[in-house]
C-alpha cells in the first residue's frame, strides 16, 4: 500500500494518538491525558462549526437577513434567552424556551409512544397458536414470554402463587434477553478494537511494507 | 409568572401537539410545521450553551492554575484551532479535503474510536472476574450469551444447529423479553410526558 | 495462596495482554471464516436490490466515530451498492459528530462512481434534536433542511425537484448508534408510515427484534457480523469480512476467560471449605 507523504504524516499522528489512548490500559499517564483533553476541545470545536454552518446560517441568518423573514427573530430570541442559564439572577427567563421545547416534545410523544411502543407491540403479540408446526408453538412461547415478563415488572401485587410462578418465568425470559444482549455486546466491543487493529496494520504496512 | 407561565406554555403547546395528531387539519399542520421549525432553532442555541459551558470551565481552570491546568490548555488549543479552521474558509471548511476535516479525521476520529475500543479489554476482564454460574438465573444468562457468541465461531458439523439456536433465541425468547421492556418504555415515556404537560413533573425548570 | 486463588487474583493487565494477542494473531496470519446470512440482513439487501435505478432511498448516517468500527462498513457497502445500481440517495447525519463520517464516505464513494451532488445524491447534513428533525422531515425535508450540508438551497438542487417528504422516497435505511433509532421507528414509521431499515451496533441489535416481528422495522443489520453479511451479499468483501476472523479468535479468548474464571472461582471456594 503506497500513500503520499501528507497522508503518511496524518496517519502517523493518528497512530501515535491511538497508542496514547491504549497506554491507559497499563496505567494512567500524561500521554493519555493529553489525547483525552485534545479530543474534548477538537470535538467541541468541530460541533460548534457544524452547528454554525448547518444550523445558525440556514435556519436563522438566511431567513432573517437574506429572505427578510423577520419573524424568525422570535425563535432566535427564545434561543438566546437560554443563555440566561449562566446568570443566577436571570436563569428563570430560560424556562420560557425550555418549556416551549418540553411542551412540543412531550405532546408529540404521548400518542406516538402509546401507539408504537405499547398498542402496536401488544397487538403484534396476538399471534396464532397451534401445534401443526413449530411456528404455532413458538408463537405460544412469545405470548407467554411477553406476558410473564410484564408480570415480573408489575409490582402492585406481591409475586406469590400463580403470580409468583408467572414472574419467575418472566425473569427467565428476561435473562435470556440479557444474555443475548451480553453476547452481542462482546461482539460490539471487540469490533471497536478490531477497527483500531486493522487501522494500525494498514498504517504499518503503508510505512514499512508488508509485515510478513 | 416565573413558574406559572412556563407551566402554561408547556400545557398549551403539549395539548396542541396531542390534538393535532388526531385532527390533521390544514391550519393545525401550519402551526405544527412552524413549531418544528422553531424548536430546531432553539435547539441550536441550546447546544451552543453546552460548548460555552465547556470553554468557561476550561478557562477558569487555567486561570486558577488548578491541578492539571496544562491539560485544559490543550482542550482550549484544540477548540480554538477547530474554530479558526472551521470559519476561515467560510462554509467550504466543512467539505472533505480541508485542514478542518483532516483534524476531524486524523485527530478526533482515532482518539474517540480508540477510547471506545478500550471497552473490549474491560468486557474481557469483567467476563473473567464476574461472570459466574452461581444461580439458575446467572446460568441462563451465561448459556444464552455463550450460544450467541459461539455463532461467530466455525463449529464444524454443529455450526448449523448453533446458528439456528442463536437465531431462535433472538427471535423468540429475546424478542419476548425486549418487547416487555419496550412496552415498559412506552408506558413510562407516556406517563412522564403527561406528568410534564399537566405540570406535575417540573424538574426541567430547575430551582428558583 | 494456592494456584486457584492466585488465578482469581490475576492482574487485569494479563487479561488485557491476552485480548491484545488474540486480536493480533489473525492480523498477522489471516484466515477466512464462514458468514451465515440472516433473513433480517437479507431483507435490507433485497430492498436496495429491488429499488429501481433513478428511485430514491433515504440513507441516514446517524453515528459518531465511536461506532465507526461497526457501522462505517455497512454505510459504505450500502452506498456503493446504491450508486452502482443508479439509485439516488438523500443522506442525513443526525448524530452530533456524524456529519464528518457521512462527508468522508460521500466524497470517497461519489468519486468512485462519478456521482454528482444535487443530481445523484443530496447530503442534508446535521440539525439538532433528532426526534424533532425526523418529524419535521415527514412534513417536508425543507423544514429542518432549507439548504444542504454545503449551504445550497434544496430548491435549487435538481434531484429535489418534486421531492417533498418520506412519501417521495422508497424507504429509509438508518445506520444508527444510540436512541436516534427509536425516533426513526416512532416518528418516521409510526407517524408517517415510512419503510424503515436499520444497521445498528452489536450492543443495540437484540433490542430491535420486537420491531422486526411487528413489521415496524423491515430489515436489520446487527454489528460487525451484520456488516460482514451485507458485504458478502453485495459481493464487496472489505473491513467487516476481514474483521470476522479476528472476532472468532477474540470470542474464543473471551469464552476461555469465562470458563477459566468459573473453574478458578469454584475450585478456590472448594479448597476454602
- Counted up, domains of chain C total 2
Strand content of chain C is 5-15%
Largest interface: A-B, 114 and 123 residues
Please, how many domains of chain A? 3
Descriptive report:
The complex is a heterotrimer of chains A (212), B (208) and C (273). Chain A is mostly helical and 212 residues long. Chain A is 76% helix and 0% strand. Among the domains of chain B are: 1-64; 134-193, no CATH class. Chain C is of the alpha/beta class and 273 residues long. Chain C folds into two domains: 3-30 and 246-272; 39-237, Rossmann fold, CATH 3.40.50. Chain C has eleven helices and six strands. The radius of gyration of chain C is 22 Å and the shape is elongated. The mean pLDDT of chain C is 94. The chains are: A mainly alpha (212), B mainly alpha (208), C alpha/beta (273). Chains in contact: A-B, A-C, B-C. Chains A and C meet through helix 2, helix 4 and helix 6 of A and helix 2, helix 4, helix 6, helix 7 and helix 8 of C.
What is the compact description of this entry?
The complex is a heterotrimer of chains A (212), B (208) and C (273). Chain B is mostly helical and 208 residues long. Helix content of chain B is 78%, strand content 0%.
Which characteristics define this entry?
heterotrimer; A: 212 residues; mainly alpha; 3 domains; 6 helices; 76% helix; 0% strand; B: 208 residues; 7 helices; extended
Describe how the helices and strands are arranged.
The complex is a heterotrimer of chains A (about 210), B (about 210) and C (about 270).
Chain A: H1 5-22, H2 30-66, H3 73-80, H4 94-125, H5 134-152, H6 161-208
Chain B: H1 4-22, H2 26-63, H3 69-88, H4 99-130, H5 136-150, H6 159-171, H7 173-197
Chain C: H1 3-8, H2 12-28, H3 39-50, E1 56-62, H4 68-84, E2 88-92, H5 98-112, E3 121-125, H6 130-139, E4 172-176, H7 180-189, E5 196-200, H8 202-205, H9 209-214, E6 219-222, H10 223-233, H11 239-272
Parallel strand pairs in C: 1-2, 1-4, 2-3, 4-5, 5-6
Amino acid at each position: 500500500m503506497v500513500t503520499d507523504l501528507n497522508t503518511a504524516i496524518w496517519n502517523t499522528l493518528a497512530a501515535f494518538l491511538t497508542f496514547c489512548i491504549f497506554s491507559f490500559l497499563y496505567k494512567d499517564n500524561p500521554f493519555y491525558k493529553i489525547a483525552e483533553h485534545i479530543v474534548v476541545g477538537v470535538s467541541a470545536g468541530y460541533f460548534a462549526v457544524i452547528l454554525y454552518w448547518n444550523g445558525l446560517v440556514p435556519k436563522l441568518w438566511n431567513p432573517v437577513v437574506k429572505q427578510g423573514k423577520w419573524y424568525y427573530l422570535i425563535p432566535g430570541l427564545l434561543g438566546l434567552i437560554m443563555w440566561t442559564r449562566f446568570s443566577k439572577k436571570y436563569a428563570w427567563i430560560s424556562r420560557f424556551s425550555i418549556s416551549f421545547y418540553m411542551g412540543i416534545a412531550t405532546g408529540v410523544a404521548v400518542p406516538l409512544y402509546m401507539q408504537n411502543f405499547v398498542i402496536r407491540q401488544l397487538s403484534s403479540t396476538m399471534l396464532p397458536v397451534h401445534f401443526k408446526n413449530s411456528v404455532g408453538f413458538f408463537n405460544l412461547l412469545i405470548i407467554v414470554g411477553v406476558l410473564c415478563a410484564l408480570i415480573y415488572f408489575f409490582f402492585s401485587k406481591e409475586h406469590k402463587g400463580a403470580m409468583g410462578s408467572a414472574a419467575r418465568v418472566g425473569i427467565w425470559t428476561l435473562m435470556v434477553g440479557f444474555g443475548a444482549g451480553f453476547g452481542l455486546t462482546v461482539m460490539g466491543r471487540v469490533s471497536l478494537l478490531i477497527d483500531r487493529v486493522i487501522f494500525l496494520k494498514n498504517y504499518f504496512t503503508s510505512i514499512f511494507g508488508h509485515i510478513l | 409568572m416565573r413558574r406559572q407561565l412556563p407551566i402554561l406554555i408547556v400545557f398549551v403547546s403539549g395539548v396542541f401537539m396531542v390534538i393535532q395528531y388526531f385532527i390533521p387539519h390544514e391550519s393545525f399542520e401550519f402551526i405544527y410545521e412552524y413549531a418544528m421549525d422553531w424548536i430546531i432553532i432553539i435547539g441550536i442555541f441550546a447546544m451552543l450553551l453546552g460548548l460555552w459551558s465547556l470553554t468557561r470551565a476550561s478557562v477558569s481552570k487555567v486561570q486558577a492554575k488548578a491541578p492539571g491546568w496544562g491539560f485544559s490548555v490543550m482542550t482550549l488549543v484544540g477548540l480554538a484551532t477547530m474554530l479558526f479552521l472551521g470559519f476561515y474558509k467560510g462554509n467550504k471548511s466543512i467539505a472533505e479535503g480541508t485542514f478542518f476535516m483532516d483534524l476531524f479525521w486524523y485527530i478526533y476520529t482515532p482518539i474517540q474510536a480508540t477510547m471506545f475500543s478500550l471497552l473490549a479489554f474491560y468486557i474481557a476482564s469483567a467476563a473473567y472476574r464476574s461472570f459466574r454460574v452461581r444461580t439458575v438465573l446467572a446460568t441462563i444468562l451465561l448459556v444464552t450469551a455463550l450460544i450467541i457468541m459461539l455463532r461467530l465461531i466455525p463449529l464444524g458439523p454443529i455450526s448449523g444447529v448453533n446458528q439456528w439456536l442463536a437465531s431462535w433465541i433472538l427471535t423468540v425468547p429475546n424478542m419476548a423479553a425486549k418487547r416487555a421492556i419496550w412496552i415498559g418504555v412506552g408506558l413510562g415515556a407516556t406517563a412522564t410526558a403527561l406528568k410534564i404537560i399537566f405540570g406535575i413533573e417540573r424538574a426541567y425548570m430547575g430551582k428558583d | 495462596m494456592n494456584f486457584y486463588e492466585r488465578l482469581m487474583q490475576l492482574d487485569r493487565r494479563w487479561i488485557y495482554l491476552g485480548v491484545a494477542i488474540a486480536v493480533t494473531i489473525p492480523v498477522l496470519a489471516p484466515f477466512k471464516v464462514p458468514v451465515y446470512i440472516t433473513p433480517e440482513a437479507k431483507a435490507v439487501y433485497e430492498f436496495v436490490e429491488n429499488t429501481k435505478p433513478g428511485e430514491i432511498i433515504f440513507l441516514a448516517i446517524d453515528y459518531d466515530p465511536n461506532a465507526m468500527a461497526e457501522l462505517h462498513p455497512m454505510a459504505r457497502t450500502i452506498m456503493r451498492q446504491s450508486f452502482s445500481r443508479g439509485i439516488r440517495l438523500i443522506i442525513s447525519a443526525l448524530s452530533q459528530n456524524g456529519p464528518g463520517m457521512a462527508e468522508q464516505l460521500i466524497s470517497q464513494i461519489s468519486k468512485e462512481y462519478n456521482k454528482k451532488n444535487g443530481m445523484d445524491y443530496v447530503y442534508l447534513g446535521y440539525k439538532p434534536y433528532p426526534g424533532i428533525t425526523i418529524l419535521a422531515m415527514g412534513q417536508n425535508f425543507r423544514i429542518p433542511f432549507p439548504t444542504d450540508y454545503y449551504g445550497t438551497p434544496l430548491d435549487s438542487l435538481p434531484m429535489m425537484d418534486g421531492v417533498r417528504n418520506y412519501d417521495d422516497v422508497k424507504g429509509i435505511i438508518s445506520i444508527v448508534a444510540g436512541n436516534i433509532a427509536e425516533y426513526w421507528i416512532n416518528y418516521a414509521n409510526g407517524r408517517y408510515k415510512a419503510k424503515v431499515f436499520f444497521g445498528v451496533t452489536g450492543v443495540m441489535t437484540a433490542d430491535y427484534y420486537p420491531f422486526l416481528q411487528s413489521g415496524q422495522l423491515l430489515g436489520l443489520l446487527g454489528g460487525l457480523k451484520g456488516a460482514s453479511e451485507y458485504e458478502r451479499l453485495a459481493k464487496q468483501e472489505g473491513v467487516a469480512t476481514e474483521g470476522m476472523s479476528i472476532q472468532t479468535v477474540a470470542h474464543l479468548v473471551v469464552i476461555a476467560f469465562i470458563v477459566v474464571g468459573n473453574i478458578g472461582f469454584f475450585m478456590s471456594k472448594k479448597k476454602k471449605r
